[in-house]
């Protein structure tokens, strides 16, 4: 029994158990073939009626991961994903209303790990007439 315990200890000593993480993420006007078609950077103009959020989840298989969309610190939407592999690309989007000018944030959250925030991305949604230089 001691020999078996020693063998298991030796075999697992060098293993690193990866934690869920976000390899890359960005806001975009759309996603095709599991890739963002462009990158929107803040500020984002209200000429964009729909804003997508793309994330490339790593080492998240077996976890429930969520995109939480916040407007001025109010939770507006939560979309839950169940990654089934070591790399899982997902998207969510919000259809924007003109009255929603202001700060937005998307948190990527590991629901199976006490709602740990894996990353947070933000943008300002602005009036195109007031901010003609906006995305």
Question: Would you give an account of this structure?
Answer:
This protein is mostly beta strands. The protein has one domain (18-126): Immunoglobulin-like. It has one helix and ten strands. The strands form three sheets. It has a five-stranded mixed sheet with strand order 4-10-9-6-7, with no helix packed on it. The protein is elongated and about 75 Å long. Mean pLDDT is 91; it is low at 4-15.
State the domain count.
1
Number of helices: 1
- In total, the number of strands is 10
Strand order of the largest sheet: 4-10-9-6-7
| Name of the level-1 CATH class | Mainly Beta
Query: Approximately what portion of the residues adopt beta-strand conformation?
Result: over 45%
Radius of gyration: 19 Å
Second-tier CATH architecture: Sandwich
Described by strand count, sense and barrel closure, the largest sheet is:
5 strands, mixed
Q: Pairing-aware structural class of the strands and helices? A: mainly beta
Q: Helical proportion?
A: under 10%
SSE string, helices as H and strands as E:
HEEEEEEEEEE
How are the SSEs placed, and which strands pair?
Elements: H1 2-13, E1 21-28, E2 31-32, E3 35-36, E4 44-45, E5 50-58, E6 65-71, E7 74-81, E8 87-95, E9 102-110, E10 116-126
Parallel strand pairs: 4-10
Antiparallel strand pairs: 1-5, 2-3, 5-8, 6-7, 6-9, 9-10
Record keyword descriptors for this entry.
five-stranded mixed beta sheet, three-stranded antiparallel beta sheet, 1 helix, mainly beta, 10 strands, elongated, Immunoglobulin-like
